[in-house]
Amino acid sequence: MFTPHAAEAFELRPQAAAAPSFRAHTVAYRHTETPFVAADVSLADASAALAQRVGEEARLYATNSGPIDDYVVTTTDLSQFLADSSPYAEQFRAGIGATYGRIPDWITNAYECTGWGFILRYVLQKARLTGPRRLLLQIVDTDIHNFGYWIGTSRWGKSGFGICTLLIEVTPGEDDMLTLGNASQAHALVQMGRSLRSFTESRPGVSIALPFFPEMSRRALFKCFDTSLAHGDHYQRFGHSFGSDPWLSVLTELDSGTLKPGQDCIVSSLALNGYFSIAQVTLAPQLRHALEGKA
Amino acid sequence: MTSAQTCSLLLLSNPDKSRAIPCEVCNLPLLEPQDYVRRAVYEHANTAPVLVNNQQYYALLAALAQQLWLDSGAQTRLFIQVRMPSIDLALPASLLDARVTMGTHLWNEALFWAGQVQTPVLWISADRIRRDLWDDGDNLISFASWNTGSEPAIAERVLPALARFTPQIVASELLP
Fold first, then answer.
1. pLDDT band at residue B174, thresholds of 50, 70 and 90?
2. I need a labelling partner for B141 at 20 to 30 A (CA). Which of A214, A258, B97, B174 fits?
């Protein structure tokens, strides 16, 4: 449940301009193998291999796309050695930079699957100071250690691992394009569903990308809002792919033609600890999109 | 932007000493024998004591945030460097606040804000507080502040939130 304090804290300041707050210029995803490396591969080598893959995705989908103001990596299950201040983490960032040409400005695993929403909120705050900003955001969920926990649990089902690459232009504008919430674990699904209901009611005709969960969880979520515009269920194909779920949903709908560049959609994610992110995103008419390397 | 004030504090005691609390040295469920092997590979031979569990760690960060908003004003923006969040333990609502950014390598973000706004900006390195056998931390917590004014010193601003940890001021490393 929202506490009054949390609701107050999450409120975004009203702005007068009407430009879209979040315009996606690139949406790409490529899965990574499980296990990603053999058990006898050293942490340094595993880190270098993953950094090369992350940097390659950035190089493929963010090069020649105009200047990047902010470059952030968010994750749920990335090794803590690659998301802290250790020398391994420095090597990981440097490895990305060696392939892409720029190291990530910062990395976070604090917000789990909802990290993209918290990063959008933060970059929107920066944009209110500087004007529009172009954000390269990568959602990297590959467990180089291959812990059993991340492979899948009864709580979110089977997992999908990979790298999602987003290039989003963040423009200070309407203040209601993003909702972040925080509920207890027990009530998070219902609370997110209620927030989806209020978010979608004022956006008729805009399709809805949801996190991928097993059928029982999806049914519980579907009781809370009008699901007529919800994207198809892609859990069986991709598994729960952490913060990449809604973007994978967008890519799949683009592939099938039910969603087209130039249209808006609503993206949403839920974290195990009860946080959720919901945003309206405009897909640029010249959107670059690729699923497993195929545009 | 004012120049940064910095300080480092070494935490010396558990905040709940003499009370029984779960040790919670592991923050990722280990489900199969091979998981224990994977974990053992990267355990540190670290003599620094594990002073806090995950819950105490989050409580410490939340207390710091509240203390800084009380002391330096509600507009104070916080950049908190943390290590991996714990599984099955939600962050306190105050750490999800729009004035807080959590992650790593946040020094340049703090610098950006310090140059853009006249209100206080705090960078907190809390990623060396040891909670886990994987942590290479030494229980040092470091701070840098901008736009806070020179008095009181940054250490005095944060000490009320840390008193139960018996903090010891040490020479400040700088820093990012």
1. low
2. B97
Helix axes B54-72 and B154-162, enclosed angle (nearest 10): 140
Contact B90 A148 (CB under 8 A): no
Q: Is residue A139 domain-shared with residue A265, that is, in the same domain?
A: no
Alpha-carbon gap, residue A68 to B125, rounded angstroms:
27
Mean pLDDT of chain A: 92
- Give the mean model confidence (pLDDT) for residues B147-176: 86
| Mean pLDDT within A120-130 | 97
Q: Give the ipTM of the model, two decimals please.
A: 0.95
Range of the domain at A62: 22-170
Q: Domain boundaries in chain B?
A: 5-14+42-170
Q: For residue A15, name the pLDDT band (cuts at 50, 70, 90).
A: very low
Asked whether residue A102 falls in the same domain as residue A212, the answer is no
| Interchain contact B103–A (C-beta under 8 A) | yes
CB pair distance less than 8 Å for A182 and B136: no
A118 touches chain B (CB under 8 A): yes
Q: Domain count of chain A?
A: 2
